[in-house]
Amino acid sequence: MPLDLASVVAPLRADPAATVLLFDFDGTLSPVVDDPAAATALPGVTELLEELAGSYRLVGAVSGRPVAFLAGVLPSSVALSGLYGLERRVGGEVVGHPEAPRWRPVVAEAVREIEAATAPGTELHGIGVEPKGLSITLHVRTRPELQDGAELLARQVGGRLALDIRPAKMSVELHPPIPADKGSALRDLAGDATGVLFAGDDVGDLPAFAALDHLGLGERGVSVAIDGPELPDDVRRRVQLVLPDQLAIVRLLEALRP
Ligand SMILES: [Mg+2]
Predict the structure, then answer these.
(1) Distance 15 CA to ligand 1 centre (A)
(2) Which end of the chain is less congested by CB atoms within 10 angstroms, N or C?
(3) Which CATH superfamily groups domain 101-175?
(4) CA angle 214, 227, 252 (to 5 degrees)
(5) CATH architecture for the domain at 5-98+180-255
(6) Who contacts 218 (Cβ-Cβ below 8 Å, separation ≥6)?
(7) pLDDT value of residue 32
(8) How many percent of the chain have pLDDT more than 90?
(9) What is the average per-residue pLDDT within 184-201?
């Protein structure tokens, strides 16, 4: 049974000091754009996050983006978990996953191979390659006909270098085989909070929704999805609240004011 915004957030507003608010970035706090480097938070979002961070135990972003990118587009009072839990910034300090450093040269080799395979003149030219240090995203938003080619390339390079392949919206990503995802990121940031909200819009957010369920917080465990043509059914089915569009994220943040 779908719930309305006010009744979903009321249990969280009742005890902000014991509550953690976590948000995906792209497609949740920021509109999805063709050029990933150009993404910024929706108007009003950074101010509201900063305001909420003053009352709630923790306000954070949980993203596939590097922390360095998130730090440029979100206020310093917002905790950051980047690269699907491989790095985070809490209280100004950036901490990487202990297993991450040894994978940097492997990921760098994968970037070289993928850039060569998508160079001008190749069949796969037009795939957007975004190196993220510890992961790589192959984007096909502007060239959807290259989706199959991008997935095949990711499987070939990932298979050879023992990297994991993760599908996402109009893209595919290669990651080190480290057991970190948005679920482990959510558990890390939630700590012993008795209330947690997570909002997302993509298959990469499913582990976070599952981790939230496992915390067993009852009405103080709140899952929110942002509707859109690309919202996966798996996400839509498992959340308590589906916001009708991205502008509604501003209404959600406003409704969370204690
Ligand atoms: Mg997203």
Answers:
(1) 27
(2) N
(3) Trehalose-6-phosphate phosphatase related protein; domain 2 (3.30.70.1020)
(4) 70
(5) 3-Layer(aba) Sandwich (3.40)
(6) none
(7) 86
(8) 83
(9) 97
Q: What is the mean pLDDT of residues 221-247?
A: 91
pTM of the model: 0.89
Give residue-wise pLDDT tens across range 137-156.
Answer: 999 999 999 999 999 999 99
Q: Domain residues of the chain, as ranges?
A: 5-98+180-255, 101-175
Range 150-158, long-range pairs (CB < 8 A, 24+ positions): 150/124, 153/114, 153/117, 153/118, 153/124, 153/127, 154/114, 157/110, 157/113, 157/114, 157/117, 158/110
User: Which of the four pLDDT bands, split at 50, 70 and 90, describes residue 1?
Assistant: very low
Mean pLDDT of the chain: 94
Distance 64 CA to ligand 1 centre (A): 8
Rounded to the nearest whole angstrom, what is the distance from the C-alpha of residue 125 to the centroid of ligand 1? 25
Report how far ligand 1's centroid is from the alpha carbon of 32 (Å): 8
Q: Are 258 and 52 a contacting pair, CB within 8 Å?
A: no
Strands 58-62 and 128-131: unpaired
